Amino acid sequence: MEKYKKDFIKFLVKCNALKFGEFKLKSGRVAPYFINTGMFNDGEKIKKLGEYYAEAVKDNFKDSFDAIYGPAYKGIPLCVTTAIALEKLGINKGYVFNRKQQKDYGEKDNLIGMRVDQNTHLILIDDVITSGAAIRESLEILKNNGNPQVKGIIISVDRQEKGTTEKSAIKQVSEDLGIPIFSIVTLEDIIKVLYNKNVDGWVLIDDKMKNTIDEYLEEYGSE
Q1: Alpha carbon separation from 79 to 86, 118, 127, 160, 198 (Å, rounded)
Q2: CA angle in degrees (0–180, nearest 5) for 194-12-30
Q3: Fewer CB within 10 A of the terminal residue: the chain, N end or C end?
């Protein structure tokens, strides 16, 4: 496993963005873990987050794209901080995000940042994917605003849970849209790094929690 992935998992823990316990999800499932990317709430944290996204973008796409796209609202700081971090890696690309409400004055454009057209290649970044509804909304917005090509999608964590089929929600969305989706880390990565390991004085995944996670994945884990 690459070093930046291990560091990202420890970063999630230190920011209290990754928690273990009992959490009711929007889907109705009761999960033993929860990821809250809203915890990256100061300059240092959002800067570091951008660095991890940038590493994942570089890992999966090199520099074969034109800009980073972030869907409003959560994706706005993500695309900006990732673009800044990419520049520090020697990859200077644009960034783009959408308005939540269409302008009815001036140029009436719905995108802010680098101008895009049908020849523009974008990497879309977001925090997590559940049903894929937010991604589909983003693709529709882009289609109606220059129709750039989305080359791929990067999210923070792949929970490796099935969606409406036995396939993982991410694999299902990727196949439906015909767009590759990558994550900085997966749940499997998280377990490898944290199981019976001390992080800042705490063992977050001990034998009991590992058994709880295994039981949850037995029911909801993807193939």
Answers
A1: 10, 20, 11, 24, 32
A2: 75
A3: C
For residue 220, cis peptide bond before it (omega within 30 degrees of 0): no
Q: Are 96 and 112 in contact (CB under 8 A)?
A: yes
Written as six digits, the tokens of 192 are: 């490898």
CATH number at residue 191: 3.40.50.2020
Report yes or no: 55 and 147 within 8 Å, Cβ to Cβ. no
What is the rounded distance in angstroms from the CA atom of residue 33 to the CA atom of residue 12?
12
Tokens at residue 207, please?
Answer: 């034998």
Distance CA 188, CA 14 (A): 19
Residue 16 structural domain: 3-220
Average pLDDT for runs of 10 along the chain of length 223? 96 95 87 90 97 98 97 94 98 94 58 96 90 84 95 95 83 92 96 94 95 95 82
92, amino acid identity = N
What sections of the chain are H helices per DSSP?
3-14, 43-61, 75-88, 133-143, 169-177, 187-194, 207-220
CA distance linking residue 107 with residue 55, whole number of Å: 35
Name the residue among 33, 98, 44 with its Cα closest to residue 67: 98
pTM, 2 dp: 0.92
